[in-house]
Amino acid sequence: MLIQSKHRPGMLLTRLLPNVLTLLSLCSGLSAIRFALREQWEAAVIAIIIAAIFDLLDGRVARMLNITSKFGAELDSLSDLVSFGLAPAITLYQWVLDEGEGLGWLAVLAFVLCAALRLARFNTMLDNPNVPSWQKNYFTGVPVPAAAGLAIMPMVWSFALESDLPRIPQVIAVWLMLLGGLMVSRLPTFSLKGRRVPQSWIVPILIAFGLLAAQLVTNPWRTLGLLNLLYIITLPLSWWQFRQHAKREPE
Fold first, then answer.
1. Hey, which of 16, 117, 132, 141 has its CA 20 to 30 A from 246?
2. Could you tell me which residues are beta bridge partners of residue 189?
3. 2 — pLDDT class (breaks 50, 70, 90)
4. Distance between CA atoms of residues 213 and 229, nearest Å
5. Do the beta carbons of residue 116 and residue 81 sit within 8 Å?
6. Residue 148 near residue 82, CB atoms below 8 Å
7. pLDDT, tens digit, for every residue of 136-145?
C-alpha cells in the first residue's frame, strides 16, 4: 500500500521579501529617532536616507515578483509614517526646533499630521478605477518620503557648509509647515513608477547613476543638498506638464 504524504501549505520566502524590506525601512526610521535623541545628527540623517532606500526597494520588488497585497500596502504606509513623518520631525525638533518654543512643536505636529493625512489619501486612491491612465505618472501632493528628504535639507546643508547658518528655529518651523501643506495639497508631482525609458537613454542613465554614486561617496552632503534642490525645481515643471496633458485630454 502506498502511503501518500500530505504537505502543509506554506509560503515561499521570496514572497516575504517586500515586507522584510518594509520592516527594515521602519527599523531605520526608528534608529534615526534614537540617534537624534543622542544628538548624533549625521547618523540620524543617514538612517532616514537608508530608510528611503529600503522604501524604494520594497515596492519595486513587490511589483517585480507580482506579490502586491493589501497587507503590504498598509504596512508600507505605517512604516512611512514613522520613518518619513515622525523620524525627520523629531530629529529636527531635537536639532533646533525646541529652541523655537511653541512654534517648533507646532511645526512638528503639523508635519506629522499632514504626513498621516497624505498617506491615508494615497491608500484610498489606490482602488479608484476612474483615474485616467496618464495620471498614474503623477502623485497628488508631495510624497511623504520626498517631504522627509526636503525636511532634513537644512541639516544636510549645515553638514555640507560646516556652518550653523541654516539653524534658525523660526525659519525651519515655517519650512516644515510648508512641506506639510505640500503633502496634503493637490499639486501634481512626478511619479517614476509607470514611466518607460527609451532604449537610447539606457546607457546615459546608467552612466549618470554611476557618477551620482561616486559623488555620494566622495562628497555626500553637498550631493544630497543638490538633489533636494533639483527635486524642488521639478515641482513647477510637473504642475506645468500635468496642466498641458490635461488640456489635451478630451472631456
1. 117
2. 139
3. very low
4. 17
5. yes
6. no
7. 778 889 999 9
> Which amino acid does the sequence have at 250?
P
pLDDT (tens digit per residue) in 87-141: 999 999 999 999 887 899 999 999 999 999 999 988 887 666 666 666 777 888 9
CB 16 within 8 Å of CB 72: no
Q: Which residue has the cell 514572497?
A: 15
Name residue, grid cell 508631482: 189
Judge if pTM exceeds 0.90: no
Classify burial at 211, counting beta carbons within 10 Å of its beta carbon; exposed 0-12, middle 13-18, buried 19 or more. exposed
The dihedrals phi and psi of 66, each to the nearest 5 degrees, come to 55, 50
Question: Residue 148 in contact with residue 112, Cβ under 8 Å?
Answer: no
How far apart, in whole angstroms, are the C-alpha atoms of residue 202 and residue 230? 21
pLDDT mean over 1-9: 47
The helix/strand count (H/E) of the chain reads as 10, 2
- What Rg do the C-alpha atoms of the chain give, in angstroms? 20
| DSSP state for residue 190 in the 8-state scheme | E
| Grid cell of 44 as nine digits | 540620524
Report the amino acid identity of residue 165.
L
Contact 114, 181 (CB under 8 A): yes
CA 85, 89, 74: angle at the middle one, nearest 5?
10
User: Do the beta carbons of residue 164 and residue 145 sit within 8 Å?
Assistant: no
Q: Hey, how many other C-beta atoms are within 10 angstroms of the C-beta on 123?
A: 14
